[in-house]
Amino acid sequence: MNLPENVICTMNADLELKKIIDNFQNKIFVLTDENTLKYCLNKLPSLKEKQALVITIESGEQHKNIDTLQKIWTFLGENHGDRKSLFINLGGGVICDMGGLAASLFKRGITFINIPTTLLSQVDASCGGKLAIDFNNLKNEIGLFKNPDKVIISTEFLETLDQRQLKSGMAEMVKHALLYNEEYFLKLTEFNPEKPDFEMLSKLVEESVMIKNLFVSQDPTEKGIRKMLNLGHTIGHAIESYSFATTSPLLHGEAVAVGLVAELYLSNNYLDFQHTKLMNVVRYLGTLFTPFLFKFEKYEQLYNLMTFDKKNSSGNINFSLVSDFGEYKTDCHCKKEDVFQALSFYNQINI
User: pTM for this structure?
Assistant: First the structure.
């Protein structure tokens, strides 16, 4: 397995960034939110030396929309950004997704670098070139594929995170383990996000990015095997969108954990994924996440949200399911009543 050519894993992000921007003569813009402005920007003193212009937006999925995108473009225009400018995204998945889209469309595209600062964004948004905003209360409805020119991944930023954010990222890593092998899953279970060993985590992150790259490199625009990275996300995205209207909105990884439990149930039902292995994964996720429960009366609403998934075709909801660790099938069509049973399975397991 290899890292993508544009990805750098390091314990010193500023050193790697300095190599890139030292001789850069044009304007540099940095997109942050209030959290990365406070906790992460000071870890990159080379940006201050180059007099980078900082754009700060409000954090949270609710701000990943066209209005925020317009604010970014307005800032770029008012500060004389041009095609030779450099745009740096310093933040989590929202910043990397939306900032990458803003850079890709401004002046028909300017150079951009991602410096992901959450565990989730390091193992997910760092690789694959998916850029998007939410629209009409649906996740990532408007976007395109374009890889950053560079991605700098460093676990030094993860030391600024609380346990909830760290655990959110673990859900995506569990997904990667299911798609790769059981050995990697067992490695994950040895990491304790409540007492994090960041040197150990750095190795796990690098392996997770390489696993994702196995799928992305074979299918950059998601026509076939890359759809497997949607494991846990068909139901997970529906749960996430639903949660935004409640008093307990979920982080992306928290919603994916719900989706993984439900879709592993479907994997057991349709592809004979071993019940023992299913329960091992479920129990591990139960050590990370508190339950997010929903009543039977909401199943229809959740199912309707699943019908908007971008990987659907010909009126069918397409699930990506596993028959074992490292064995899988895309475009699985599941009966509505089975999807409802999968939601009930999650509610009864009560993780």
Answer: 0.90
